[in-house]
């Protein structure tokens, strides 16, 4: 018997059936046995990770994903209300999601853990515009800014937000899936610290003082390859690229003639995601980021009964549009080889 695993199952079942009270009872009972931090990270965090896996496997809908996340958020509130009161005795930390990042639960879990550990915490929530964040830092003077981002396409914004925060003299810790499993992009961007999860972030802040940021600099100073303008040009022409590739697909994939309006909309959205991820891979100059996204997209399509091979003409058409972009050509060729090998 694994009591923590049992609590995960109890919360999952309650959230899946939309039982807010059952979910609250599950986390409060588990907190009484295991403590608030364990429940926040190893129960609620585990359930949230399962949400993403179940959606990708087409076992729950987007609506169910949102409903479960909302119940998880309420469960965090229940724990917050009942957590032991502790006067802040360590530094002050501002916790925020970068602009455009709506996945706020990881940042909220960090904020709750830091409060449990005795930090004064300002939790700003999802999608914080950078100018407003900087104004807040000037007004409150925190010891550390903790920035969260879960989606890789927010990396350019995360980078610019990080450098803007550092320009105020405040050290920046970053975390979230967007920065890579080992924090590779955090290091590439010059973050003052990276943490794999809320527990290690709290441990780090308790055990060391983060270094003072380097003198103000621009993102291109960290990523000199941006001087070739491929990222900028792909970003500026993204809508035109999507339209051109969509028209080309209509000629290459006859089945699209019978698509419903909803299917056409989803196809256009998928194309936009592919272009966004290509642009992000160009920003960080990392082929693997784009290859892994295409592979993940293929798995999601297969789970929904759509052969992953439909990606091949998409990548062909995109490569034709970007024939004068050598880094983009290199990135587009790699997942095409992967898709072809499945045939």
Description of the molecule:
The protein has 343 residues and is α/β, with parallel strands linked by helices. 64% of the residues lie in helices and 8% in strands. The protein contains 16 helices and 5 strands. The chain has helices spanning 3-16, 20-34, 36-56, 62-82, 105-116, 130-140, 155-167, 184-189, 198-207, 219-222, 230-236, 238-252, 261-284, 287-303, 311-321, 326-342; strands spanning 92-98, 120-128, 144-148, 172-175, 193-194. Strands 2-1-3-4-5 form a 5-stranded parallel β-sheet, sandwiched between helices. α5 (105-116) links the parallel β1 and β2. α1 (3-16) packs across α3 (36-56) and α12 crosses α15 (311-321). It starts with a helix and ends with a helix.
């Amino acid at each position: 018997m694994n009591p923590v695993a049992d609590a995960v199952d109890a919360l999952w079942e309650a959230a899946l059936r939309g039982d807010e009270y059952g979910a609250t009872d599950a986390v409060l009972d588990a907190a009484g046995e295991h403590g608030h931090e364990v429940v926040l990270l190893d129960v609620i965090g585990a359930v949230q990770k399962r949400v993403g896996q179940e959606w990708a496997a087409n076992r729950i809908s987007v609506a169910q994903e949102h409903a479960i996340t909302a119940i998880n958020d309420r469960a965090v509130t229940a724990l917050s209300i009942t957590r032991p009161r502790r006067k802040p005795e360590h530094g002050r930390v501002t916790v925020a999601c970068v602009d455009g990042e709506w996945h706020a639960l990881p940042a909220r879990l960090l904020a709750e853990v830091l409060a449990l550990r005795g930090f004064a915490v300002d939790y700003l929530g999802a999608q914080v515009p950078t100018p407003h964040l900087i104004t807040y830092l000037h007004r409150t003077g925190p010891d550390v800014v903790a920035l969260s981002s879960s989606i890789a396409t927010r990396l350019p914004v995360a980078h610019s937000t990080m450098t803007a925060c550092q320009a105020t003299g405040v050290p920046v810790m970053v975390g979230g899936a967007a920065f890579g499993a080992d924090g590779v992009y955090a290091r590439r961007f010059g973050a003052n610290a990276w943490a794999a999860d809320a527990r290690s972030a709290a441990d780090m802040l308790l055990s060391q003082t983060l270094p003072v940021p380097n003198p103000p600099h621009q993102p291109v100073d960290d990523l000199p390859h941006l001087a070739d303008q491929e990222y900028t040009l792909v970003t500026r022409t993204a809508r035109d690229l999507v339209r051109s590739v969509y028209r080309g697909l209509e000629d290459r994939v006859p089945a699209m003639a019978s698509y419903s309006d909803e299917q056409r909309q989803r196809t256009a959205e998928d194309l936009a995601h592919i272009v966004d991820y290509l642009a992000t891979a160009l920003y960080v100059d990392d082929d693997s980021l784009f290859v892994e996204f295409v592979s993940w997209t293929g798995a999601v399509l297969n789970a929904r009964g759509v052969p992953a091979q439909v990606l091949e003409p998409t990548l062909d058409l995109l490569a034709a549009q970007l024939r004068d972009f050598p880094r983009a050509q290199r990135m587009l060729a790699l997942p095409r080889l992967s898709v072809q090998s499945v045939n």
